[in-house]
Amino acid sequence: MTHLPADPSDVADLTRATFHLAFSANQLHHAYECVTVYAGTERCGLLVMPRHLAWEMAARLVDPPARIADITPEIIRHVRYVLDEDYALDVDEQPTEHLRRVIRLMANATEDELRVMGRAYPAYAMAVAIATGAPTGLEALRLLYLTVSSAAAG
To answer: 142 and 128: one domain?
Structure first.
């Protein structure tokens, strides 16, 4: 697996990492990865890491977290529909059954599980994290909805 920066003109992100499997002399895999790190085109390091840490590092390079700007009013409505019982009673538009299941899974997930699910649904994962992250999370999500929907309308 190779990570290349999204925009090569961004000098601050000119680091690329190439990941190779490390095999023992008898070709048995010992749960380690050999990670070659490049800065631009120059090789600047070689790391041997436990497999799970190497792949987590690769995931963090390849799957950057969502930004607040990625959360749309529709996503907030979907999350509130599933997690806020009072809101769900007053809404005609419902998320699909699939999205309801995804949101419920995210709401009950550990932090690591939520990060993994966030690779497929980054904005939903962030909205669920806001809603479940504090006792006033649903109120924070409601206020975010007001802000995002007024920005989209204006």
So the answer is: yes
**Nearest of 74, 79, 35 to residue 56 by alpha carbon:** 35
Q: Are residues 77 and 25 in the same domain?
A: no
Neighbour-count burial for 36-53, b at 16+ CB within 10 Å, e otherwise: ebbeeeeeeeeeebeeee
Domain that holds residue 137: 68-153
**Strand bridging mode 29-39 / 42-50:** antiparallel
Kindly give the residue spans of alpha helices, DSSP state H, lying in 18-84: 51-62, 73-83
> What is the reported pTM?
0.61
Q: Looking at the structure, tell me whether residues 44 and 120 fall in a common domain.
A: no
pLDDT in tens, 99-146: 999 999 999 999 888 888 888 899 999 999 999 988 899 999 999 999
What is the DSSP code (8-state) at residue 39? E
